[in-house]
Amino acid sequence: MASADGLPDKLVRASLADVMPYVPGRAGDADADVVALASNEGPFDPMPGAQEAVRAGAHEHRLYPDPGAWALRDELAGRLGLPVEQVLPGAGIDGLIASLAALTLDPGDELAMCWPSFLSWRQRCLVQGATVREAPLTAAGAYDLDALADRVGDRTKLAVVVSPNNPTGAPVGADELERFLDGLPAHVLPVLDEAYFEYLPAGSHDGASLVREGRRLAVLRTFSKAYGLAGLRVGYLAGPAELVTAMGKVRPAFEVNAPAQAAAVASLREAGAELPARVALIERERKRLRTCLEGLGVAPLPSAANFLYIDLGSPDRAAAVNRSLVEDGVMVRPTAPFGAPAGLRMTIGRPEENDRLMAVLPGALSSV
Ligand SMILES: Cc1ncc(COP(=O)(O)O)c(C=O)c1O
């Protein structure tokens, strides 16, 4: 029997009843005069060598990509100081989250994380029919690792730490992270989402070095932010060799496409020359936007990433400020889907884009 909407009854798994479908917005006219500060990619183009690598491989796309992504794995392993067996490229951190959840979570199992935070962790857990155990953030918007430890129970398989946290921006401290890892029971795999790793200040945590020390920990990083490759979808996992092998049960064979593999290798080779200036620009522009916001009476939370988060006190005010910004052609991110309905997240853009945002902010904030 087909249901009214044309699908067989009970086709969609009953356990997905509470999972909201992802509704992609339309990007709109690329030529339109809109400043896009909503998706945290940041202001950077792919590095020159990465652009060249994509162009140079264009005639080869008749063939499937290297399913092992070996050149990229070798390059990553060398730079991280890990055996190649402990490194796994994926289709962005998002692709790796999907595979990790599919590998580990059955109905009844649990994933512990703080909330508000990056929604893919929550979404992928729910898709598995598993349970999210949520802990609060600290007042600064960082993961509260004591509260998170309290949420870990007998059925918890994954304990996720997003640092710096999205959408709020604050990182956890290196020492408290190690204490948290030390205190976890043996049946839990801790996962450190370091999507904004490149922007962390000196002395912060470095998940790869924790993996090098032999800790049982999965670390996730991406080429979508500081490397400017968000459109190509490439990231990686560093962790126990047994985990990398087990991921082969669930991951798509040709997960990382050929241009993405080539661009990521080229980017790593240029990182030493290119990244410091990128990080410096983010720090400079973030400070400028912070000063502007503070002057307007809305102090953003501390941020070690390429975005700032402001709390507007109520969902209505956040919606009104967002509406005004959209009318002025500036797109920022309302953070209700991340569990923060009174907030807005603003990606640090190019200096001239940040100028546009700062020019319209006074009107947006005073219009409500
Ligand atoms: C904390 C966090 N993890 C993962 C991702 C996804 O990264 P990727 O583009 O590699 O899928 C993002 C993207 O915004 C993020 O903020």
Question: What characteristics describe this protein?
Answer:
368 residues, alpha/beta, Aspartate Aminotransferase, domain 1, Aspartate Aminotransferase, domain 2, 2 domains, seven-stranded mixed β-sheet, 11 helices, 12 strands, 14% strand, binds pyridoxal-5'-phosphate
Structural overview:
The chain is of the alpha/beta class. It has 2 domains: 29-45 and 272-366, Alpha-Beta Complex (Aspartate Aminotransferase, domain 1), CATH 3.90.1150.10; 48-270, 3-Layer(aba) Sandwich (Aspartate Aminotransferase, domain 2), CATH 3.40.640. The protein contains 11 helices and 12 strands. It has helices at residues 48-56, 70-80, 92-104, 119-127, 145-151, 174-183, 207-212, 241-247, 258-295, 315-327, 351-366; strands at residues 35-36, 87-90, 110-114, 131-135, 156-162, 189-193, 218-222, 235-238, 307-311, 330-331, 333-334, 343-347. A 7-stranded mixed β-sheet has the order 2-8-7-6-5-3-4, with helices on both faces. Strands 9-12-11 form a 3-stranded antiparallel β-sheet. A two-stranded parallel sheet has the order 1-10. Strand 6 (189-193), helix 7 (207-212) and strand 7 (218-222) form a beta-alpha-beta unit. Helix 1 runs antiparallel to helix 9, helix 3 (92-104) runs parallel beside helix 4 and helix 10 crosses helix 11. The longest helix has 38 residues, at 258-295. Bound molecules: pyridoxal-5'-phosphate (PLP). Residues 40, 92-94, 118, 162, 166, 193, 195, 222, 224, 230, 235 line the site of pyridoxal-5'-phosphate.
